[in-house]
TrEMBL record:
Organism: Marinomonas algarum
Name of the molecule in the record: M18 family aminopeptidase
Cofactor list: Zn(2+)
Signal peptide feature range: none
Recorded family membership: Belongs to the peptidase M18 family.
Annotated keywords: Aminopeptidase, Hydrolase, Metal-binding, Metalloprotease, Protease, Zinc
Domain of life of the organism encoding this protein: Bacteria
Amino acid sequence: MNISSFNEELLSFLNASPTPFHATDTMRCALFDAGFVELSERDTWSIEEGGKYFVTRNESSIIAFTSPQLNVHQTGWRMIGAHTDSPCLKLKPNAQVDRFGFHQLGVEVYGGVLLHTWLDRDLSIAGRVTLKTQSGDVVSRLIDFKAPIAVVPNLAIHLNRQANEGFSVNPQEEILPILCGAENEFDLHTLLISQLNKEHSDLEVDSVLSFELSLYGTQSATLVGLHEEYICSARLDNLLSCYVGLQALLDSNNQRPSLLICTDHEEIGSLSACGANGPFLEDVLRRLTPNQEQYVQAMQRSMLISADNAHALHPNYAHKHDKLHAPGINKGAVIKVNANQRYATNSETAGVYRDIAGEENYDVQCFVVRSDMGCGSTIGPITSGEIGVPTIDIGLPTFGMHSIRELAGSKDAFGLYKVLARFTQRDHLISR
């Protein structure tokens, strides 16, 4: 695979994944195509040496792994972690709002959204709907309207003269999308049933019971810049890392026990049944190594590379960075370091990563937040704290994180993919 085809498939993955449910399903299909076998947590597992498997939870988190040998306590795992969710606007349960001659949608802010970036955008709706069929079964299905069916118009500057001096957006009153005028009949459940019938013609829908639906911008992911130096897209944080990790696992050659975990709910703390602060990963690992002593041995011979986007040096806001730890776009992935363990990187895991990157002639950068600013976090410290695996936090430099459109380098993802693929084939990590 060359950089051109890699980026082309990356853009397709981003466009096909408007929600964590769709991202997980897209990865699920790719794993099927690569010969991976799907497991169910409800069944008894029979893992064969040399096999390739994956399992999902809540349809929004996924773990995929290879098992070239079953004595994983002697080899350890080569783990790659990322998250499937992104900040967005989610529909409230009673979402239909009719006011002042318009049909609108009541929304709730999910994660740390840059709210103003959602104004004046062509928006669609996607997610999961739980329904009752005419035969009485309760099932869930994914839907994606794809078409731009909603918009949140900005307020004209004539009515807000201070707009260019900075203004806030009230998430209860000022971010409600408009669907259509009140002269048109509108019922949300009727609309959802129509969409279910359109996308799932085999269903005989009786009623909609509940839903988890998100708004998203319909503008496609694309390469931008005079020389196409940048990738511009929604949800780069963190579907970019999910895609890179997936490709690395698919190209791992099944030489070492390797595992990819992409979990939901990172943007709101990861505390859920399918989040990194939940039991999903440990449940899977303990089923693969049920002996307690061997489980601990396996963890201490393993390493996790937690991949999540990093803040690139913005030329218009350079003062927001420590000048000695200000990563540039298209200059390599970033090792994230924080003395207070907001990132799980230590000298040993950083050393292993630097060694592997050096073998691929891939540049390495380092990010430390300014000492007078707060530091974000990701799944690295959570996962390391839950299962005790040595961990490094890395990320691809990004502009506009948590905007409806984010920007990253078109060279960085391919380079990281090659490093992670080499990591999955690595024989030894830290010598003791």
